[in-house]
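Weekly sync, protein design subgroup
Attendees: M.S., D.O., the rotation student, P.L. (late)

Item 1: inverse folding check
M.S. brought a backbone from last month's batch and wanted to see whether the design step gives back something sensible before we order anything. D.O. pointed out we never logged the input encoding, so this time it goes straight into the notes. Structure tokens as presented (368 positions):
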């Protein structure tokens, strides 16, 4: 294990961001759609949490050299990243800096926020990890220069949070919600968000209730459709059904825009959405804009959502979070998907997940 390639001198960059910001690659097919740079802290020891849906949980401890791929995320020096950002001629509008569970995570995050704000002209979001935080850390991120904070709660219920987190996981459900409230207090609710992943075994009503809980704190939901990471424990699981995700996307948009609250929506005996709390043409007009079905995330300097993450939660042939404005044929497809109701009990065998998590946890204890 080579100790040289670690934060804060090095970071991992999302593959789409790497394509956009590699002058030798030229313009990729995604280039015109990528407006944010997703960066993650990296350590030879890897992330010390094990989450079923995350490829870094099972591979992040493996040694790699800069420029090689771990789950397709290259490791680059921060000097090189800053140089590329400053050479970029205008498409980039925001940096998203993600923590991992590591003892140096808070100190390194604070250092990097300060450096990016001083050495680039991009806005900085910080994806905080509540498992590492002490009192005052979130406020310090804001004072240092981050203008937005995100807490990745990911699952819709406490039980799912624990099931997908595994044994001896440092994450705690209530600590995540307390951190979201602290972030809203420090940054302002309109500059705070949470990540939620649809399709990890929850019902539509459970997800809607969780989106409302975040909104009651002032925070927005940045919604993802579960799509198996090839390096994760759930690499062979089925993605979130499209109809389920489309209905939750629309519900999220209505709640985050304060057009309805969850108690105004209707659900069937399987807790699937059958009514959105709006009547007449009002709902149709909203759907026809296509806006509820585009990626949800932090804004940029000129855009409502810079975090457009092209095809991060679905294949290009079955787009879930559209990274561009929908065309009429896209809206027609979305309407067909929303009208599709499947019997959707949890598609993930929780006993299998727990067995795999227990094995990996044991390997971590023994030094992997």
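Designed sequence read out in the meeting:
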């Amino acid at each position: 294990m080579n100790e040289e390639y670690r934060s804060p001198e090095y970071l991992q960059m999302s593959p789409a961001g790497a394509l956009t910001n590699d002058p030798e690659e030229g313009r990729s097919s995604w280039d015109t759609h990528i407006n944010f740079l997703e960066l993650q802290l990296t350590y030879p020891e890897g992330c010390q949490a094990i989450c079923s849906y995350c490829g870094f949980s099972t591979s992040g401890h493996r040694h790699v050299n800069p420029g090689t791929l771990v789950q397709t995320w290259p490791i680059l020096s921060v000097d090189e990243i800053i140089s590329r950002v400053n050479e970029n001629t205008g498409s980039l509008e925001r940096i998203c800096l993600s923590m991992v569970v590591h003892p140096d995570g808070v100190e390194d995050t604070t250092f990097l926020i300060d450096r990016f704000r001083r050495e680039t002209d991009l806005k900085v979001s910080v994806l905080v990890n509540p498992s590492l935080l002490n009192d005052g850390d979130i406020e310090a991120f804001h004072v240092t220069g981050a203008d937005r904070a995100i807490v990745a709660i990911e699952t819709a219920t406490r039980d799912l949070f624990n099931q997908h987190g595994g044994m001896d996981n440092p994450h705690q459900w209530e600590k995540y919600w307390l951190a979201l409230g602290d972030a809203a207090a420090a940054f302002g609710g309109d500059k705070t968000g949470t990540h939620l992943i649809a399709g990890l075994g929850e019902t539509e009503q459970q997800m809607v209730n969780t989106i409302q809980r975040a909104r009651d704190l002032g925070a927005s939901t940045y919604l993802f459709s579960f799509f198996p990471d090839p390096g994760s424990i759930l690499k062979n699981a089925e993605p979130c059904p499209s109809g389920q995700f489309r209905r939750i996307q629309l519900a999220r948009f209505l709640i985050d825009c304060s057009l309805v609250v969850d108690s105004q929506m209707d659900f069937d005996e399987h807790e699937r959405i059958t009514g959105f709390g709006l009547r007449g043409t009002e709902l149709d007009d909203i759907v026809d804009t296509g806006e509820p079905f585009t990626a949800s995330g932090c804004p940029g300097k000129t855009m409502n959502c810079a975090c457009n993450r092209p095809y991060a939660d679905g294949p290009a042939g079955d787009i879930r979070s559209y990274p561009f404005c929908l065309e009429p044929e896209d809206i027609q497809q979305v309407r067909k998907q929303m009208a599709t109701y499947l019997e959707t009990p949890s598609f993930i065998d929780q006993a299998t997940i727990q067995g795999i998590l227990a094995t990996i946890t044991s390997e971590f204890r023994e030094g992997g």
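Discussion: Residues 10-365 form a domain with the TIM Barrel fold (CATH 3.20.20). The chain has one domain: 10-365.
Action: P.L. to compare against the previous round before Friday.
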